[in-house]
Fold this sequence. Notes:
The protein is mainly α. It has helices spanning 9-23, 28-55. The model has no long low-confidence stretch (mean pLDDT 82).
Amino acid sequence: xxxxxxxxxxxxxxxxxxxxxxxxxxxxxxxxxxxxxxxxxxxxxxxxxxxxxxxxxxxxxxx
Length: 63
């Protein structure tokens, strides 16, 4: 019964400490910023694809 109780708060604390030790506290803000930027790009691309699917396929271009 290894994961019987699921994650507890001290598990998250240990994971956070390991991440800080591996990457260093100076690089974490940059990593968080780039992760947020990537998430925003992904969200906008998904929204554009959804809007394109609703609008229907584009007419083929004539040469």
